[in-house]
Amino acid sequence: MKTKHLDDAQIVELFFERNEDAVSESEAKYGSYLRSIAYNILGNSSDAEECVSDTLADVWRKIPPARPESLKAFFVSVLRRRAVDSYRRSHRLRDIPSQLTASLDELEFLAEDKSDVHETFDTLELSRVINVFISSLPERRRYIFISRFYMARPIDEIARRLSLSRSSVNKELAHIRRDLREKLESEGYSV
Amino acid sequence: MRKINKEDFNSAISELDVSFVSEAVKYEEKLEKRKAHHNVLVRFAATAAVLCIVFGAATAYKLFERGYFGGLEFMTGTQDEPIEYYIGPAYSEYGEQKEINGGASSMIAPRFSDGCVIKLSVSEILGDTYYEPGDSTPYSIAVLNVTEVIVGEGFPSEIYFRCKESEKELLAGYESFIMSIDQIGIENYVMINADLNELKYFPHMFTVGVSLGYGDVIPFNNEKVDVNFYSRAHGIDEINPYDLSSFYDDYPVKEDALELSKVEKEILKHYKKDSKTKYSYITEADVFKTPEARETLTYMNKAGNVFMQTMVSSEEVNYRRIINGFLTEEYISVKNFKEKNCEIEKSNISYTEEDLEAFYGILPVIKSKKLSPYVPPHLKVSEATHSFKNGVVFGFYRKIEGKVCGIVGSIWIYGYGGGITYDTEYELYYPDGGSCIIEADKLEEMISMPHPYVYPPMKDGVVLGISK
User: Fold this and answer.
1) DSSP 3-state assignment of B298?
2) In terms of Cα–Cα distance, which of B315, B325, B258, B250 is closest to B287?
3) Rounded to a whole number, what is the distance in angstroms from the first to the last CA of chain A?
4) What is the Cα–Cα distance from A65 to B461, expressed in whole angstroms?
5) Which end of chain A is more exposed for a tag (fewer CB within 10 A), N or C?
6) DSSP readout, chain A?
7) Is the pLDDT of residue A75 over 90?
8) DSSP states of B41-106 as a string?
9) 3-class SS of residue B287
10) Cα–Cα distance, B110 to A26 (Å, whole number)
């Protein structure tokens, strides 16, 4: 039997009331979803589990004052940052066979991290450029972009969710990569 | 120039506007909702739904010929020849890329393995530009003649191929192509021509979702495959791994256009030899083998149904009801049809003989559409800022509160603010002839699911950027 979860507004209210049920309800409602994204980024279950726990704690600290419009998206964005931090720490020790590594490797026009020519970047400026790029994409491509490069979803999973063949998703990704490259170049980035 | 590495990119992505994440989450939930309501429909929705229209129309035509419709009007003039559609092995069953004959890869072959492979020549490129809602790419339409049927049968002699406008001259530069229906999709389409202010039917509309590429079409000049076509089509030298650019370099016989079908046969033979699974085209007789499946077939015939047949995978076959060429939500799915205990799944909504006798024929409504009397209901259009590109009119049926309602959608597409914008309107027709205008969101609510052709109108001032 399917468990009935609280709706997001109720969970957010629990956070505001500093009621710890907010955490358990969030875990019950979004735990497995978040774990799958964490696993895609980190490539191992125990790290993913730890990442989800940290994310729940982070969100507990952020709400209030934050009152997210979409609680699920809020969790995903917090988790992503947390998971990428963890990924970076681990990445120094070994190459992680995760979907995040795979998705970044697909962007073959970007230099490897070990590049000798590394400048200090204005991450927010680059993020702005990527924001503009994403907003120019049709809805489905936006979804594919976020799924692959933000949530690090496997291509097969994206295809399954969209009810497309893997090759169709691959084709969409190829065009996204090409257009992204053009966009970055037009904004003065060397790729 | 600032040099980016992967870590820079990854960091920047983490700072993306959360609204994109929110949108993706909502989009995903919408997809899940669709699956929950109509698991099978979702698999059709984006691409196969359009297949349904034509193949359904084909079946409809055949049934019409046999007198099933009792004089109801069929889409006269939109379907000249019936199409027999065969079902082939699915992509997944080919497994990983494998080599045969010391070099050829199977990767290209599955695209042409679904029982529909035809050779065509370009007879004309229509002059108008068309846009689709949700897609700012300018498209042209090429009229293609079917010169040879390599796999399958009963194809129309002429099809319309929608390509990117930037690719039309490239397309026109070749003497022939091989195309696969599974790969490029097919739909029965109606568009309003901006210049002539009249409806234009495209009864056999093939489309590609993205730029022309390997697997969409195989181009020939002097019966030789031109591998440079793909780099020209993409405008870049990069060939994607799945495009298999080395295919013809590796394969010893690369000159003859018809070798493609031979390659296909070779691959099938290869898999037959190496696998216990039998790979052969599947027909109706293969599907309706068990008593329950035969009962399903009886039900379909008994009700004078207009079902179409398509392939989702070689483990599962789905039939969708089409009324006079227009899609409905009713489906029957035969799962594991190769097994002794195959499973039959039917949609919650089913159409009775009574339903089929008492629905409102929406085709005359569609045919009567003219551009000029219509004003987009939501957008404030000004000649100074909006230039009309084209319109789209289409129809489908849904059973609402026990009645079969026809739904006709109209879309206006304008050039605006350096990009495009569009507006939509939906009309609901009841069996008794009554009708009303209905908003897209209300319509989706009434039919309990998003529909691939239900587009909420764009808001005033919102511009969809032009894609290259």
Assistant:
1) helix
2) B315
3) 51
4) 33
5) N
6) -PPPPPPHHHHHHHHHTT-THHHHHHHHHHHHHHHHHHHHHH-SHHHHHHHHHHHHHHHHHHTTT---S-HHHHHHHHHHHHHHHHHHHHHTTS---SHHHHHHHH-TTSBPTT-S------HHHHHHHHHHHHHTS-HHHHHHHIIIIIS---HHHHHHHHT--HHHHHHHHHHHHHHHHHHHHHTTEE-
7) yes
8) HHHHHTTHHHHHHHHHHHHHHHHHHTTTTTT----TTT--S--B--B---GGGG-S--EETTTEES
9) helix
10) 43
Contact flag A123-B209 (C-beta cutoff 8 Å): no
Query: Are B373 and B320 in the same domain?
Result: no
Is residue B44 a contact partner of residue B320, using CB atoms and an 8 Å limit? yes
**CA-based nearest residue in chain B for residue A78:** B14
Contact across the interface for B2 and A189, Cβ inside 8 Å:
yes
**Predicted pLDDT of residue A11:** 92
Partners of B23 on chain A (C-beta within 8 Å) are: 139, 142-143, 146
List chain A residues with CB under 8 Å of B421. Answer: none
In a domain, B66, yes or no: yes
A150 reaches B (C-beta below 8 A): yes
CA B440 to chain centre: 21
Amino acid letter, B33: K
Residues of B in contact with A140 (CB under 8 A): 134
| pLDDT reported for residue B198 | 54
DSSP one-letter string for B435-450: EEEE-HHHHHHHTTS-
Pair of tokens at residue B39: 């698991």
- E strand or H helix at B409: strand B403-416
What is the structure's pLDDT at A93? Answer: 47
B264: left (phi over 0), alpha (psi -120 to 50) or beta: alpha
Q: Look at B56 and A145; give whichever has higher pLDDT.
A: A145
Name, of A55-59, B177-181, B310-314, the range with top average pLDDT.
A55-59
Residue range(s) defining the domain that contains residue B401? 363-446
**CB-CB under 8 Å, B18 with A74:** yes
From B4, B47, B240, residue closest to A189, measured CB to CB? B4
Residues B268 and B134 in one domain: yes
Per-window interface: A 2-21 vs B, CB < 8 A? none
Total domain count for chain B?
Answer: 3
Q: Give yes or no for A100 touching B (CB within 8 A).
A: yes
Q: How far apart are CA B53 and CA B258, in angstroms?
A: 29
Sign, CA dihedral A180-A186-A191-B2, equals: negative
Asked if A175 lies within 8 A of B210 by C-beta distance, the reply is: yes
> Percent of chain B, pLDDT > 70?
43
Pick A115's closest partner by Cβ from B5, B11, B20: B5
CA distance B66 to B76: 15
* Minimal Cβ distance to B13: which of A72, A115, A150: A150
Q: Is the domain of B268 the same as that of B315?
A: no
Considering the domain architecture, whether residues B311 and B286 belong to the same structural domain is answered as yes
**Which residues touch B160 (CB under 8 Å, ≥6 apart)?**
B141, B142, B143, B144, B189, B202, B203, B204, B205, B206
Give mean pLDDT, residues B214-226: 59
> Token digits for B84?
């027999």
pLDDT of residue B91: 39
Q: Does B465 touch chain A (CB under 8 A)?
A: yes
Helix, strand, or coil (residue B263): helix
Q: How are beta strands B435-438 and B419-429 bridged, if at all?
A: antiparallel
State whether ipTM is beyond 0.85.
yes
Domains of chain A: 8-95 (1.10.1740), 100-186 (1.20.140.160)
pTM, two decimal places: 0.43
Token pair listed for A182: 């053009």
